[in-house]
Amino acid sequence: MRLVRHVWPDLPAWLAELDDTRFQPYVDYTKEFLVWCGVLTFACELGSRRQIDYDLREMEGAMLENLNRLAGAKQESLPVHKTVSHALVDHMGVGQFVGLQTRMVRWVIRSKVLDVCRLMGWLLVAVDGTGYVSFKKRHCPRCLRFRTQDGFRYRHHVLEAKIVGPGGLAISIAHEMIENPAGLTEDQYDNLKQDCELKAFERLANRLAKCFPRLRICLLGDSIFACGPVISICEANKWKYAFTFKQGRTPALWEDFEALQQLSPQNSLFRDLPDKTKQYYQWVNRLQFDDSDHRHHEFDAIQLREINQPKDTTFAWITNLPVSQRTVTAIADHGGRGRWIIENQGFNYQKNSGLNLEHAYSHDPDGLKIFYTLLQIAHMIMQLLIKSNLLKNLASQYEKANAIALFGSLKNIPRRLLECFRNYLIPDEAFDFEAARHMQIRLDTS
Known about the structure:
The protein is an alpha+beta fold. The chain has 2 domains: 2-92 and 388-437, no CATH class; 95-352, Alpha-Beta Complex (Transposase Inhibitor Protein From Tn5, Chain A, domain 1). It is built from 17 helices and 11 strands. Helix 3 (31-43) packs across helix 5 and helix 3 packs across helix 13. It is globular and about 75 Å long.
């Protein structure tokens, strides 16, 4: 709670500003209280909305009091999950929660907590798409349709932009749903070019530019983003980028890259790692590229060969960051390879943990988006807790070497948080804004 009070001192005011269209004389639960119920569903990794009725309502005394102090409310009972969903989905709307997430991320960036996620002064933001929920039958007019062996599958996908950094940090800064136009009928699928990551990227980029106009962003992405339209958007917004470079994506450009490598043997670097892996970097500066719309682009390209018996691996990236003997390893290691964090510590964790990303927390199309946003907000809060010095300080109080020695595993922390809320009346000082102001939070860069 001290973390929330310290990082987001204005969060209570932001929650109070959310529009609530419920008929107020009949309202039993305040909007702040219900929003926190939704956030705790994910922070405690309950796995489904229905678990609110079991895990939050059991032993109601301590849970109710803790939630009241967290939300600044005076509720006399805890809500059922249908009450939470009804208020958030039917009376508050998607845009407000997306705006809340933007405010929270903007505040973290301004507090300089995420400065460890910068490369040469540019904030590393990985972009990638993933499946969200899937249905056997058509769920809504915006579903994407995919052919399978058994017929068709209807899915909702999302394009995520996550700030990535050391220690596997992956904080969602913005997202864009990959979905078809509203009003689409079943008969129109065959003649429709469905929404995709590149179309969604244009919308996502517009949102990033609008919400963070002065933020120095370096985008990271796989080879699908190494194309003219995406590079043009980055150039227009004065962003840096480091995208995976593959021969099959742009074969002519790859041929030019291989030919120019032979002409610039001085652009190379050897490195031996402690695990006996040998790394060989080669790069080409000012590689020329004309896209399909005849737009001219100029960037650098890096190739990394890793020799580690019995398997050797080759990686390559294009980037408009300045590549040299001094910068090539940082750009490759923290920039190009940092993209994997969004898949591993981002999507894989959210899908295979109690966050249960692929679970349909609502069948309402707007409800899906609202609960997805709440999941990202809760994940951001928990990452700042787990990856900061707060747990290290707590472990030292119990004379433990680290948080793993204290909790057994970092995966146990959400469960311990739930048990704490249910069984233990959290001390008043944990909710004290004045005490929280004097805290110091540093992210673990190991």
